[in-house]
Design a protein that fits this description.
The complex is a heterodimer of chains A (416) and B (450). Chain A has 416 residues and is of the alpha+beta class. Chain A has 19 helices and 21 strands. The relative contact order of chain A is 0.07. In chain B, 71% of the residues lie in helices and 0% in strands. Classes of the chains: A alpha+beta (416), B mainly alpha (450).
Chain lengths: 416, 450
């Protein structure tokens, strides 16, 4: 196996057996599936170009890189600044292992000769690569042999590694960025939480607004705020629109007044109104917790008409398992379960199907009480009503549970 | 998971009977919306929100090693070394500003940056330095625990073993935030030095004079011993672990370059505040212990250091000192082994989390538990000098500090990393002088001991 470490610090010897310096770095051109080595950088060679085309290399072995030309014939490699330097840009950087969902490091890079060119084929993330860098690989191998153990390489193939596209970013992903968008937002959130701020922003920027919104909903408030602060206003507004209004309101509520209004002004009118409405409630109340995306129907409908309405509304509602029946003044009259609606005869008036004694909470109820009520009556969501019993929104079970779960279970255990 | 899909508002199809809700929302009288009282942080509050790392860290600097070292300086040299606090505070601010800036701009920890910029070999060197320096500091904390509980009549073996067990349990299982607050509160007992300084006949004129006129030696103290004390003073004020911890917590808080002014304010106020406390420890011990037979000798036991508080609380000085020392020692002891294991694992890409099993994160647990077991074990050696360990380890910190500073210095000048946020000329001059002075002191110390 050939590794980058074998080349770094190798002596460069020209065709006349004259020593010309040592290898400082290898330069690759990025291409699918494997990047190809196009040049190398020299350390110590006086009066020599700093980067040289790989075409001048005859062979590389035993810690020596021999050239097929005299040093005087060497010319500067023209594209060195636009291509990737393996040691400078990739070695020692972080990799998010999306299988293990943890951050590992590029300890070494595996190269191979394919059709006469040297290509980058793998990333060594194991202890063995680490020891190789320290010049202790053979010592390690001897030690493991004493204990009758194997000393395995831990290498992942380059074609499943994908750099995050950002100037400052250091992160490479174990799977491609495109596939990242198909992962569950909760999983992406877990990865994002493990990264530094610039890398987090780079990953979020690569996602569509929808996935980005769902991912942000799964991260802690601090990380959410910090990521959104790095995006421009248009992007932030798009993501806020895609978030459920209660989450968006939570985020906006923590901003200074002028900043909040700036962002709301950039949002679509409907979403902005929902959020503004929710912002009028105190943070730690049922009103602050609720969402306005629920299904409510007038009491005059039949079962069939109601199902038709649900079809129309389903994409936007947060929960459709309960359908709330209201009068023209929005007073909460009853609740229908989806099950009862489907089972009932088509022309049954919903007033005869609905349960009239609806369990609801006032807008100023404590989150703990809301959660307790939901748990007591085994509900999936609970309506929130004002003093006159008019429905204002619903609190879903997952939002209620979030507030009563112990801190440690919700937030990633922070360093300190 | 409920399917939170698009935030398609209900008002999009206003013709539908389903959307009366929106109409009523618009009709709502404004009085109903008066329940809102959302918090709008102004600049001052924003500062307070970001404050934390700097102030807490700077005060964690007044740990067991710090209190013993400052007490020793006051008891041994009187007011004469007070002048050193001016250059040390400037250096502390400059170093922490570089670290804070690196954290804000890159969003990465110090060890991350060292690994990415300098590679595996240098990272290994820095890791070893960090483990040794932090191990030394942890040793001082255990010495502090033994000393504090000793004053309260608890035998050393019991004190050390229960402290080690407590720390391991808190970190792995407990509510660390709460515990840290309790320790921080106990540590407030050290504010009694402030009051004491005004109760005793402090010679304020001499204090002022000592700040302005540097003295570079002391009658009755050998040059080598003097040097060791000065290095300990620097090492305990600009602790290596503080720099790593500071950057980690800044990154952890998600501070970005926009927060830089607040982070700077936090660092400056924290450094100023903690060094004022340190100065008062020196002034109080100078006014009490120096004039009562410890001049040129320094403190030799925990109870001799505690006597500085006698003018304030009489015979209860021992207890008051013990409470402060216990809180300060445990606070730092709870942070040290965890943050050491964390940064080292981060540098090598190893699994790091107390929530994992031992077999899943072997390096992390080996470092974390190893540090506690070894340092606690050393303190169990019979007749080991508590004050000797506490002050000696600060000298070790001071000797190792320049290694870390060199890396911080190079990183803070890296154009590719920081762009326009890299060091200014003035910062470079101050940090360069700090590093050269520290290396110079180390070299002189080495030549002296040969």
């Amino acid at each position: 196996m050939i590794f980058l470490t074998d080349f770094l610090r190798a002596d460069i010897v020209d065709i006349n057996q004259q020593r010309a310096g040592t290898v400082k770095d290898l330069i690759v051109r990025m291409r699918e599936p494997y990047p190809i080595v196009t040049a190398f950088a020299i350390r110590g060679g006086k009066h020599l170009p700093r980067t040289i085309d790989w075409g001048a290399v005859r062979a590389g072995e035993n810690n020596e890189l021999s050239l097929n030309v005299p040093t005087t014939a060497l010319r500067e490699y023209p594209r060195a600044s636009s291509e990737t330097w393996l040691s400078r840009d990739i070695l020692d950087r972080q990799i998010v292992d999306t299988d293990g969902r943890r951050v590992v490091r590029v300890n070494d890079l595996q190269l191979q000769v394919v059709n006469g060119s040297l290509v980058l084929i793998g990333v060594d993330i194991g202890t063995r690569g680490l020891l190789r860098r320290l010049g202790l690989e053979s010592t390690g191998r001897r030690l493991t042999r004493v204990f009758h153990r194997n000393f395995p390489h831990k290498i992942i193939s380059w074609d499943v590694v994908d750099p995050v596209r950002s100037d400052q970013s250091s992160v490479k992903l174990r799977i491609s960025h495109r596939k990242l968008g198909k992962m569950h937002p909760a999983d992406i959130a877990e990865i994002v939480s493990q990264l530094g701020s610039t890398d987090r922003a780079a990953i979020i920027q690569g996602l569509d607004a929808e996935t980005a919104a769902e991912t942000l909903e799964e991260t802690s408030d601090e990380i959410q705020a910090q990521i959104l602060a790095t995006l421009d206003d248009e992007q932030t507004a798009d993501i806020l629109e895609a978030m459920s209004p209660d989450e968006a309101a939570d985020f906006l509520g923590d901003l200074p007044e002028d900043r909040r209004e700036e962002l709301i002004a950039k949002m679509e009118q409907e979403e902005a109104e929902d959020v503004t409405e929710l912002l009028t409630y105190e943070d730690n109340t049922a009103g602050g917790l609720m969402t306005t995306e629920y299904v409510s129907v007038p009491s005059t409908l039949t079962a069939e008409e109601t199902i038709a309405e649900i079809r129309l509304r389903a994409p936007s509602a947060e929960s459709i398992y309960y359908v709330y029946v209201i009068d023209e003044m929005e007073h909460l009259l009853g609740v229908l379960s989806l099950r009862d609606l489907i089972v009932a005869a088509q022309d049954t008036p919903i007033t005869s199907l609905m349960i009239e004694r609806v369990v609801a909470v006032p807008t100023d109820a404590e989150p703990e009480d809301v959660a307790a009520v939901i748990a007591k009556y085994n509900l999936l969501a609970i309506p929130v009503v004002d003093e006159e019993d008019r429905i204002q929104g619903i609190v879903t079970i997952d939002d209620a549970m979030d507030t009563v779960m112990p801190q440690g279970m919700r937030r990633r255990a922070r360093l300190l | 998971m409920t399917g939170r899909k698009e935030a398609d508002s209900t008002s999009r199809r206003p013709a539908s009977s389903l959307h009366q809700k929106v109409v009523s929302l618009r009709d709502r009288s404004p009085a109903q919306g008066m329940g809102r009282k959302r918090f709008t942080p102004g600049p001052v509050l924003r500062f307070l929100a970001i404050v934390g790392p700097g102030i807490i860290i700077a005060n964690a600097g007044n740990d067991a090693g710090g209190v013993f070292t400052y007490s020793n300086i006051g008891a041994k040299y009187g007011y004469s070394l007070l002048w050193t606090f001016i250059p040390i505070t400037i250096s502390l601010v400059v170093v922490q500003e570089m670290v804070g800036r690196l954290g804000c701009v890159t969003g990465k920890g110090l060890m991350d940056l060292i690994r990415e910029r300098f590679g595996v070999r240098w990272t290994l060197l820095v890791s070893i330095v960090v483990i040794v320096a932090n191990g030394g500091t942890l040793l001082a904390e255990f010495a502090g625990v033994a000393g504090a509980l000793g004053l309260l009549g608890i035998p050393k073996t019991l004190a050390i073993l229960s402290a080690a067990l407590l720390i391991a349990i808190i970190v792995m299982r407990g509510n660390r935030q709460l515990v840290e607050r309790i320790f921080l509160a106990l540590g407030l007992a050290f504010f009694s030095y402030f009051i004491t300084a005004f109760l005793v006949p402090t010679q304020w004129k001499t204090v002022g004079h000592s700040f302005l006129v540097p003295s570079l030696s002391h009658p009755g103290v050998a040059g080598g011993a003097f040097l060791i004390d000065v290095i300990a003073l620097i090492g305990t004020t600009i602790t290596p672990y503080m720099q790593l911890y500071l950057q980690s917590s800044i990154v952890d808080k998600g501070s970005s370059r926009g927060d830089l002014p607040y982070v700077r304010a936090d660092i400056i106020s924290g450094a100023a505040f903690s060094n004022i406390v340190s100065v008062f420890i020196v002034i109080t011990t100078a006014a009490t212990l120096f004039n009562h037979g410890l001049a040129g000798i320094g403190i030799t036991s925990t109870s001799s250091a505690a006597r500085a508080l006698t003018p304030l609380v009489g015979i209860h000085a021992q207890q008051l000192f013990a409470v402060g020392l216990l809180g300060a020692s445990l606070l730092a002891a709870a942070v040290l082994p965890l943050s050491t294991a964390f940064v080292v694992c981060e540098a090598f890409g190893a699994e790091r989390s107390v929530q994992r099993k031992f077999s899943e994160a072997p390096l992390f647990f080996m470092l974390f538990l190893g540090l506690i077991i070894i340092t606690a074990g050393v303190m169990l050696v019979p007749h080991i000098s508590i004050t000797g360990v506490a002050i000696g380890t600060q000298t070790l910190d001071g000797v190792l500090l320049p290694v870390l500073l060199v890396f911080i210095f190079i990183l803070a000048n890296d154009r590719a990393l920081l762009g326009k946020y890299r060091n200014s000329l003035l910062l470079n001059i101050i940090s360069f002088i700090t590093i050269i002075a520290l290396i110079g002191l180390d070299v002189v110390l080495l030549m002296n001991s040969l």
